[in-house]
Amino acid sequence: VALYKGVVLEDGVFCGPSCVFTNVLTPRSEIERKDEFRPTRVGRGATIGANATIVCGHDLGEYSMVAAGAVVTKNVPPYALVAGVPARQIGWVSRAGERLGEDLTCPRTGERYRLADGALIPIQD
Asked: 116 CB contacts (<8 Å, ≥6 apart)?
């Protein structure tokens, strides 16, 4: 996995084999565009699957999960599960990386979540 200037990986990030971070939006091998690198932040605990592509300038929220082969072309919210080309949100995942059902309870840890204004928030007991 190649990391370019402007890509920031926070603690606990998993980058699957051959995932890719782009550095500019319109690359050309004959034209130097190092002044066009766009920042990309990958939040704490996020997972990026094998062969996924993260287009520069789009952030991945904490504990989000990008499916293998997905192409991220917009910001990914915290705890979101995205898949496809282009990547679209198909669900939510817990901090433990488990897909959440309608009850928004992690099947592995029992941690509960709630939705507030379209964002997933852990419930502190």
From this structure: none
